[in-house]
Amino acid sequence: MRLGLALGYWGRGPSPDHVPLAQEAERLGYDSVWTAESWGSDAFTPLTWIAARTSRIKLGTAVAQMAARSPTTTAMHALTLDHLSGGRMFLGLGLSGPQVVEGWYGRPFPKSPLTASREYVDVVRQVLRREAPVELDGRFHPVPYGGPDGTGVGKALKSITHPLRPDLPVLLGAEGPKNIAQTVRIADGWLPLYWSPMRADVYEASLADAPEGFLVAPMARAKVCDDVAEGLLPVKAMLGFYIGGMGHAKRNFHADLMARMGYEEEARRIQALFLDGRREEAVLAVPDAFADEISLVGPRERIAERLELWRKGPVTDLLLLAPDRHTLRVLAELNS
Predict the structure, then answer these.
(1) pLDDT value of position 249
(2) How far is C-alpha 42 from the geometric centre of its chain's CA atoms?
(3) Residue 81: which of 65, 92, 66 has the closest Cα?
(4) Alpha-carbon distance 171 to 158, whole Å?
(5) 3-state SS class at 193
(6) Where in the sequence is the signal peptide annotated (predicted)?
(7) How far apart are alpha carbons 258 and 318 in whole angstroms?
(8) C-alpha distances in angstroms, 198 versus 47, 158, 210, 304, 309?
């Protein structure tokens, strides 16, 4: 199992620790570093900044949002950064949810998310393979565009730039069982938002047909500390926000996932509290047990024991979210 560093997206502004952490992760032998985006900073620019200040560590987006860019634009970003970094790029993509897609990007959330994802990946793959001009008679991503409000003179084009790697890895962030099963068929890897090594059976059917070499790369918050309860507070805050606020009351993929993992009553309570404006209560309502099983928090010996659970399942890459330098070093030592 390889280790990666997950930096996430910016909050109020850029963190001065991101580049030094990425450099330290590279020095410690981490395999990859990942950036994200929501409705503020983008995923590709910080990754390019890190690429210029490192030499070996792989570079991934976890995730770049599909609604933010056309698939050809995303492929341009990926092939450009792959060239500049010497072939270190992983392209992680995600649909996001209706609130963000419609509220931030001003686009309709696709009525058939699986079809939209499949078309998006198809176009990206065509750009990267550069075997012929890109063409797709798609429902959501037609290329060239031939809609009634177009000019009718769109021309199928092939990338001017020759991609460094036609097989640049594409990973998808997916949560629903059908979406995960499709990810196995069309992508090179899967980026679970949260994963419990104690409940791998939740994903067993969806991953049944995963080919050899398929990447399973979940994120887990990591913190070496003496007080487990205190160390879990940031995990609970993250869960409270995603389960309560990242979605609509009737359509929240994160809450649905928590329910499938055995915490349905708790997920609905967190949602109700958050949407009622009682955010602190929503965070406190997150069960310690759930926060604990999807993270690596506590003294070194405790983390060492729990790390063995992650190694036993299908996880190929464990992406550590928000660790400090001490935690980075301890996890590197334990995983060596």
Answers:
(1) 57
(2) 13
(3) 92
(4) 23
(5) coil
(6) none
(7) 20
(8) 32, 46, 20, 15, 7
Token pair listed for 259: 């329910």
Instruction: Please identify which residue in the block is written with the tokens 């929503």.
Output: 282
Q: What are the C-alpha distances in Å from 157 to residues 79, 133, 146, 147?
A: 16, 4, 14, 18
H/E segment holding residue 216: strand 215-216
Angle separating helix axes 113-129 and 71-85, nearest 10 degrees: 50
Structure tokens at 186: 């069309």
Residue carrying the six token digits 């072939």: 87
- Closest listed residue to residue 35, CA positions, set 57, 50, 17: 50
Token pair recorded at residue 276: 């009622």
* Residue ranges of the chain with per-residue pLDDT less than 50: none
36: nearest Cα among 113, 90, 101: 90
What is the distance between the terminal CA atoms of the chain, rounded to a whole angstrom? 10
Return the structure tokens found at 102: 């419609």
Q: How many CB atoms lie within 10 A of CB 105?
A: 16
pLDDT digits (tens, 9 = 90+) for 56-107: 999 999 999 999 999 999 999 999 999 999 999 999 999 998 889 999 999 9
Identity (one letter) of the amino acid at 29? Answer: G
pLDDT at 251: 64
Three-class SS of residue 100? helix
CB atoms within 10 A of CB 134: 22
Question: Do 183 and 294 touch, CB atoms closer than 8 A?
Answer: no
Calpha distance 298→284 (Å, rounded): 19
Neighbours of 108 (CB within 10 A): 11
Q: What share of the chain is helix, strand, coil (3-state, %, to 5)?
A: 45, 15, 40
Residue 121 tokens, joined: 């990946």
Q: pTM of the entire structure?
A: 0.93
Q: Where are the alpha helices (DSSP H) in the chain?
A: 18-27, 44-51, 71-85, 98-103, 113-129, 177-186, 201-204, 228-245, 253-258, 264-275, 279-284, 288-293, 300-312, 325-335
Q: What is the model's pLDDT at position 246?
A: 66
Selection from 191, 195, 194, 212 nearest residue 92 by Cα: 191
